[in-house]
């Protein structure tokens, strides 16, 4: 994908989301994000990038997703982005889910479980070749839970369909474990000017994979827990986030690997962080 076509993708997505916002309650935010010590790879990544995020609701469907231009503003040598040869021109994650309550028009709640969803999470990294690309689909059942407080809670349980996975041995595997995802949201404070301060956290626990059985430097389980504090005005959005990785990307922390340039010790457990500023359309 050329830089011109990448710009076209972002413009088309922004135009589409603008139309959806006007007609159906879907919002879009353009972010500039800086991250460091990110451990989805065993070599720690620094990345300053552009992101277009969308979120909202139309009928029975809850929408959430984003499109990233990796390393758009810069980063370290452990990541290849839009300006690099064979770098990732686009990273995207889309998480639509369908509410059974709204789809059927009936209250299907059971005790504290308010609503049920067919939930998905589709992750694509458009790298320059198969060893630099990802295409993963998670799909399963989700529920929203009434905590009887201002704390919002959602739980999703996914199976996984794996296509490209950066050349890993579990590429093109239809049954390679699953994912438990737990999400919390809490409104911390509302200001007189209409701004709000919020806390959002989500944890992904990947389990049941056979990748660690095929590669001694990989694992069958991984955990990533993300904690976000956001400040939201009418259009301006600011956030800072801390993210904890345990064997991030299913790379075994402390294992010795060699990618053709000498041995190195994999660093895939610990904290990473993010800071960002955005504008909501």
UniProtKB/TrEMBL annotation:
Name by which UniProt lists this protein: Nucleoside-specific channel-forming protein Tsx
Membership in a protein family: Belongs to the nucleoside-specific channel-forming outer membrane porin (Tsx) (TC 1.B.10) family.
Species this protein is from: Acinetobacter soli NIPH 2899
Gene3D superfamilies: Nucleoside-specific channel-forming protein, Tsx-like
Segment forming the signal sequence: 1-24
Cell location: Cell outer membrane
Pfam families reported for this sequence: Channel_Tsx (PF03502)
Record keyword Nucleotide-binding present: no
Keyword Glycosyltransferase: no
Lineage, uppermost ranks: Bacteria, Pseudomonadati, Pseudomonadota, Gammaproteobacteria, Moraxellales
